[in-house]
Amino acid sequence: MKEPRHPEHQLAVVRERYAGIASGQTLGCCGDEQPLALREAARALGYSEEQIATLPESANLTLGCGNPLAAAMLAPGMTVLDLGSGAGFDCFLAAEQVGANGRAIGVDMTPEMIARARAAAAAAGRTNVEFRLGELAYLPVADASVDVILSNCVVNLTPDKTQVFREAFRVLKPGGRLAISDVVRVAELPRDLAASDSSLCSCISGAATVAELEASLRQAGFADIRIAVNERSGEFIKDWEPGSGAERYVRAALIEARR
Questions:
Q1: Distance (Å, rounded) from C-alpha 46 to C-alpha 90?
Q2: pTM (2 decimals)?
C-alpha cells in the first residue's frame, strides 16, 4: 500500500516536470522530440495525419495516452474545455471542429505551457481558442458554460480526482459530456514505483482504478459513465518509465460521462 503524497508536493513536482517539457529542457513521453518522431507518436495514439497537419508545430508534444476527440462528438458552435491543455494539441484540434462560431478553452496549471500555447495561437492566427492558467480542482470557467470537456492523460496527475470531476460537472451545461483519455491502474504497483515522483509525472503512480474513477464520477453527479480500457496500450506505456515494468500495472482508457 503506497503512502499518500501531500497534495501540494504532488502539484509542485508535476508543475516542475511539465515546465521543463514546455521549455525543451526535459524530454516528454515520446523521448525523441524531433517533429517526425512526435508525428509518429501522435499517429500511434489514434490521430490522423490530416489532424496532425492542421496543428501549429509547437503544439505537438505528444503527452497524451489516446485521442479523446474520437469520442467527443463535437459540432460547430460548441464551447469545448480541455483540462490540462499543455501546449494546446487537443485544444487546437477542437477549435477546428467547433468552427468560427464555437470556442475552445484550455486550462493548465503550468505557466510555461500556457505561454507556449498562447504563442502558437497568436502565430497561427487562431481566434476561437484561448488558454487560461489555473488548477483543475478550481477551474477559471463559469458555471454551466461548456458543452464538452476533453482531457488527455492529466486527471491521473491530480491529487483529488473527485474534486476535479465536481468542477467539471459545475462548468458543463445540463446534458454536457466528458470525453477523457487517461490511465487506469489494473494491478497494485510495487512500493518503489508507487512512491516515485518520476513515475507520478510519467502518468503511472497517480492512476486510479476503474472502480475508483466510477465512484468519483458518481459522487460528482455524473451519469451514463463508461470506461473502456485499451488493453493494447502497454505497447506505448512501456516507454514512459523504461525498465519499470509500468505496462503491467496501468492501461490507457477512454472515460465518458454525462452531466
A1: 12
A2: 0.91
